[in-house]
Specification:
The protein is of the alpha/beta class. It is built from 9 helices and 8 strands. Strands 1, 2, 3, 4, 5, 6, 7 and 8 form an 8-stranded parallel β-sheet that branches. The termini are far apart.
Amino acid sequence: MDKQGIKARAAVAASAVAVAATVWGVTALVDSGDRAPRQDVSRQQDAEPAQQQQPQRIPESIAHASEGGANAVNITIDDGPDPRWTPKVLEVLAAYDVKATFCMLGPQAKAHPDLVKKVVAAGHRLCDHTMDHDTTMDKKPFAYQEQQILDAKKLIEEAAGAGAKVDYYRAPGGAFTPDSRRIAAANGMRPLGWNVDTKDFEKPGTAAIVDAVKRELANGPTVLFHDGGGNRAQTVEALDQVLAWLKEQGRPTGFPVRTS
C-alpha cells in the first residue's frame, strides 16, 4: 500500500474514534450524578400547551353592588329603547360623563337598532329585559321563561351588531325565579336587581323622583329609571338633577358587578 492509502485509512480511523468518544462522553454525562437527566423536549412541549384564559363564571345570584366600589352608584334605564326619550337620556348621561346600564325589551331593540348602536357606542352596557315585560314570569313554566329571555337577548345583540354582548338580565317587575336566573347566568348574563325604585313610571313629578333617590340610596347603589313605556319627560329632568346631586356628593357612578 502506498503512503497516500495509509494516510487515508488513518484519517478514517481517527474520525471513528472521535465519534465514539463523543457518543460515550454524552452517555457518561447523562448517566452521571453531576447533572440532571436529559429532558425529552417533544414530551415537554406536549405537556405545556399554551395557556388559554378561562371565561369568568357568571353567578346566578342577583347583582346589586357596583364595580365602582362601595361609594359608587349604578344608573339603570328600563323598557327602551324609545325613539323620543332614549336620545334625551343619552344626552343627560353624556353631559355628566356617566355610563349606565340599559335594560331593553327585545321587540323595542329590533324596532330601533340605531338607538341600540348609539347606546353601545357611548360606552353603556346592555341588559336583557325579556320580550314582553311579563311581570308574572315567576308563575310561568321553564320553557316560557327561556323563550322570553333568550329571544330578547338574540334581538338585542342583533340590533347592537359588531359583536356587542348583553351583560345582564333583569326580570320584569323583579319576577325572578331560580330557573330564570340559571338561564341568564348560563348565557353570560348576570341577574340584575335594584335598590332604589324611583317610581318614575308612575309620573309622580320630578321632585318626587329625585327625593326617592336621595331617600332610598342608603338601601344600596342600583337606581331604577325608565326611558320607555310612556312619557318620560319627568325622568329626563329628574335624572339630570340626580346626576348633579351625585356629583356634589362626590359619588361616582359605575356598572353593576357581573362576576363573583
